[in-house]
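During the no-cost extension, the postdoctoral fellow (Dr. R.K.) reprocessed legacy sequence entries with the updated structure-token encoder. One reprocessed record is reproduced below for audit purposes.
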Amino acid sequence: MKDLINEFIDHISVERGLAQNTVVAYRHDLSVYTDYLAKKKIKSPDKVQRKHVTDFMFAQKKSGLAAKSITRSLAAIKMFHRFLVREKLAKEDPTDLVETPKVWKSVPDVLSTNEVESMIQAAKGRKWQAIRDYAILELFYASGMRVSEMVNLTLDQINLNEGYVQCVGKGNKERVVPIGSSAQTAVDRYINKVRGKLVRDKDNMFLFLSRLGRKISRQSFWKIVKKYKNKANIKKEIKPHTLRHSFATHLLEHGADLRSVQEMLGHADISTTQIYTHVDKERLRTVHKEFHPRG
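Re-encoded structure tokens follow.
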């Protein structure tokens, strides 16, 4: 089974061009799945029955795994078995009639515009690190990019004169996102005053660099966000994508249309973007309750 998983992983990473994070997650999910089958003495995909797949899902649920994780795991398993049948490595697909469990989409946590502003202002300073971090926060909030897109952004993907970034998202899909003057000014200052002092290799084109001159890591990026959240005395628990969620929510709150926000976020399906309309509805409900005389 491990050899079959390797063939499948090669397929989704090379031919399908799925994001690296997705590929890693699918490999993990399939390893857990095939380990479960091995305990049941099932070593060939042709021996797998629908009951084995559903039993595996129930076992995951019983272990306390979140519904969203179980859904992702089933997606990997379904794709794996379809691949095996298509490549004639198996005769039947046991997942054909297995339904994906319905998962309530959780409304993402967002910061208010004032909280975002105080967080960005908390990064202001004259030292190189403050200049870099300020540019990171300004650009992140201005563009709504994913963390992975931010850390992999290169100099030739940002046009400060025209005010846009060209980022590469999931599945290597490119999109152009406009950025405002605040982000343009902050990034321009970082490039001209800081980046040249950090870079060690002239062939290094990554925009944001660490003190060692390397591409900044996702972990470092998350530490930066958390650092200035604490410095701004924001009590909310935030996640790496909180500024991305805030970007989308604030655009919709101020009248942006859903299709435009979908394009800027790089969502393949508009239903993914629609989660932010729920955030707006919750805000309206709160306002109504607070200010309506019979709220």
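The beta strands are 158-159, 164-168, 174-178. Residues 113-290 form a domain with the hpI Integrase; Chain A fold (CATH 1.10.443.10). The remaining legacy entries will be reprocessed before the final report is submitted.
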